[in-house]
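Intended use. Records like the one below are meant for learning the mapping from a protein sequence to its folded structure. Do not use them to infer anything beyond what is encoded.
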Amino acid sequence: MAAGATIGGGCTYLDASSLRSLIPPSSLIPHFLSSLPSHAPVVTSPVRQSFPIDPSTSSSLLLMPSWSSSLLLPYIGVKMVTSFPHNTSFGLPGISASYVLFSSSTGAALAAIDGTELTLLRTSAVSALAARFLARDDACVLVMVGAGALAPYLIRAHRFVRPGIERVIIWNRSASKARDLVKRLKEEEEEKEGRNVVFEHVEILDTVLGIGDVVSCATSSHDPIVKGGRLKPGAHLDLVGSFSPTMRECDDDALVRGRVFVDFEPAMAEAGELVGAFERGAISRKDVVGTLVDLASGVKVGRRSLEEITVFKSVGTAVVDLLAGQLAYETHIRSN
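Structure written out for the chain above:
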């Protein structure tokens, strides 16, 4: 089906290519900044339902519904996600998703959206928006931990909010995947004018953690990869990968050394880094300073000094799916 085509009843289909044009970081990040403070309180998002499909492979099905009580955001959205981490060993996507946007006034289906692309775009935009408040203004080195589907989106989004980034270092358990991503990004960069960013890969992460101004992690690890003791003063640690209590991308030391923020409250019950740290007594829930909405609304201050280490943990919520779906749909309607 062609991008932007309508399905029976007037429902619009937005594929991955359409979404990349409709909600790039340059429009989605400002949209989150302006809309989260006012819309987050009027959106109902039940706790994400997660169903194990095959415990031996950690595969699962996740359902994320949400709806708004505001006439300014007259939508209902439902995202259906499958997570099959072992797919990567077969060269298949580990995450697949579909998103449906409905009218909250009539119940009519408005848009069927590529949920995988929507997730990649909104997840990276959330991380970058947090970095806007938490990363140093003069950040110039980005260490990307993981070279999966989300990695290039995170790199692009972080570069949007910190255009001074001039060196991107990529690490992945499979060195060949890191090399392949570096090659792709170099080719992408060559198509632009006036940019001079160095892309490289390393095989030993510990050798570069200490130079990262921003360290962004997007893995499915169940064991700590980032050692907090290696983070340099002033670093910002962005944790994206884990979404269950058994997953963990950093050790307790990173949380103890850092000033910790989360995207939304559910992260404190779902993120393995936080759940484990609470259980071990490394930090408490009171040590989590605030949420992304707190940062965007100015209720909480972000970075307070050049030497402070900051940590942002996101697990994703239906609120940002709904807002991203809203922007994609309304931008599409305006352009047609």
